[in-house]
């Protein structure tokens, strides 16, 4: 493996950001008298700052154009090494290193799975956990419009936007610009979410953590128990809006905010809302209007892959339905996991056109998406991805089988981990043992790097540029 200097430099920046972010939380833990948490946070801060700083110093002045192999290395190494930097902070609430790494992977991949109830976690670590989700969501957005958009350039171009001009000869050329542009919108929405959540009845602590968790579709909650027990319904509605914004196309939002440009590319959000309304209506018909409202929110939180739950335990939509919704996922340039709604819409549209051609052979052929023609090669890549995702899910469930009490539990954990919608599996993570946690962590990372580059990544990790 021969990582390029700029790959090392980009990794150094990511470690440095994690380390610097841990510093104020370390001071917060110290002020609260949470000594063990402060030591863990301080360790993460020191590792991130020194390791990141050393990488930046060692690669200062080294420049080299970054093509697909190096970009893929950054994609996978970033999601693997970032949690290792953050893991020491969770040592005080974990039984071992595997559990601590699991918590860090879950946080940075915005999965939201946890082994520790937030009420049993030091207050500073609850804040840190939410901050890691927010940082992971921002990293997801930046990588989507730079690395993944560059790799996707000759395919369906689902991440193509007017946000950046992708230089396929140097995929790192726009990292900084993407960070500034998307980071501004992302931060602004978080601040607005915090203020509105507080006005809607959430306490300052809850509003802060939920704003970070909601916009990143992380699904982590700052308190235990049912969501409706401690969060007013208006605040739950605000949280749902935040999740939809996070799962929507952030590049389109940037165009609205920065340029006042109105586009019609809200098909993904419209699809998420339609699916949620249908689920809520079905529950209202078979149960009650109140169950229908709760079902609507559950479906919306599932399809955005945040995974919050509004229905009482053992009520509402079955887990398999929530996992299917999470499998669909949100928009291409979003913090959500899953296959992505745009790919499914493209396939459904193509299937409808093929059926029409069977009935009316003289009808016009071809496929268009977001105003662009989509060629057959692009459609094949979308089909391959849509088929590969369930295959990886099945393999993950089979791998988890020996560690779970039954295959139903294994499927739940594998599905929630791969779609980065961890809360859907509830407390099941504590029942799969250390081996199951390792597999679940791998699935979370696979979900975040969108699985299809996996084969290329494994090859490129051990080859030259």
TrEMBL record:
PANTHER family: TRK SYSTEM POTASSIUM UPTAKE PROTEIN TRKG-RELATED. It is found in: Cell membrane. It comes from the Bacteria. Pfam families: TrkH (PF02386). It is a multi-pass membrane protein. Belongs to the TrkH potassium transport family. Keywords: Cell membrane, Ion transport, Membrane, Transmembrane, Transmembrane helix, Transport. The chain crosses the membrane at residues 12-31, 43-62, 74-93, 131-151, 178-200, 230-252, 273-297, 317-339, 382-401, 436-462. This is Potassium transporter TrkG. InterPro entries: Cat_transpt.
């Amino acid at each position: 493996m021969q990582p390029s200097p700029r790959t090392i430099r980009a990794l150094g920046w990511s470690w440095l950001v994690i380390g610097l972010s841990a510093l104020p939380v370390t001071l917060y833990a110290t002020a609260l008298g949470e000594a063990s948490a402060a030591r863990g946070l301080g360790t993460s801060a020191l590792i991130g700052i020194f390791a990141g700083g050393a990488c930046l110093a060692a690669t200062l002045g080294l420049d080299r154009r970054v093509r697909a192999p190096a970009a893929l290395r950054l994609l996978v190494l970033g999601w693997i090494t970032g949690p290792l930097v953050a893991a020491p902070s969770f040592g005080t609430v974990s039984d071992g290193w595997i559990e601590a790494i699991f918590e860090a992977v879950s946080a940075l991949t915005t999965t939201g799975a946890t082994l520790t109830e937030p009420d049993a976690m030091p207050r500073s670590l609850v804040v840190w956990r939410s901050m890691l989700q927010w940082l992971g969501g921002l990293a997801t957005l930046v990588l989507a419009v730079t690395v993944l958009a560059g790799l996707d350039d000759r395919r369906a171009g689902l991440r193509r936007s007017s946000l950046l001009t992708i230089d396929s000869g140097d995929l790192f050329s726009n990292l900084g610009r993407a960070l500034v542009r998307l980071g501004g919108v992302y931060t602004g929405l978080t601040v607005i979410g915090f203020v509105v959540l507080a006005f809607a009845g959430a306490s300052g602590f809850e509003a802060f953590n939920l704003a970070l968790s909601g916009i990143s579709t992380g699904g982590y909650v700052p308190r235990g128990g049912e969501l409706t027990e401690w969060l007013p319904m208006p605040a739950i509605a605000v949280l749902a809006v935040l999740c939809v914004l996070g799962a929507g196309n952030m590049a389109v939002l940037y165009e609205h905010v920065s340029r006042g440009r109105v586009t019609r590319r809200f098909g993904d959000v419209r699809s998420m809302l339609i699916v949620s309304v249908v689920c809520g209506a079905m529950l209202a018909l078979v149960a009650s209007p109140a169950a229908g409202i709760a079902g609507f929110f559950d479906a919306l939180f599932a399809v955005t892959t945040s995974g919050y739950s509004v229905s009482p335990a053992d009520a509402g939509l079955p887990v398999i339905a929530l996992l299917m919704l999470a499998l669909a996922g949100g928009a291409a340039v979003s913090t959500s996991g899953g296959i992505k709604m745009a790919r499914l819409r493209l396939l459904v549209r193509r299937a409808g056109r093929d059926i029409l051609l069977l009935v009316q052979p003289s009808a016009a052929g071809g496929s268009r998406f977001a105003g662009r023609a989509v060629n057959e090669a692009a459609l094949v890549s979308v089909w391959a991805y849509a088929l590969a995702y369930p295959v990886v899910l099945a393999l993950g469930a089979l791998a988890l089988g020996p560690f779970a009490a039954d295959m139903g539990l294994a499927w739940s954990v594998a599905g929630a981990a791969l779609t980065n919608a961890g809360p859907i599996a509830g407390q099941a993570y504590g029942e799969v043992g250390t081996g199951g946690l390792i597999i679940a962590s791998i699935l979370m990372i696979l979900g975040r790097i969108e699985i299809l580059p996996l084969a290329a990544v494994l090859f490129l990790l051990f080859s030259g540029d």
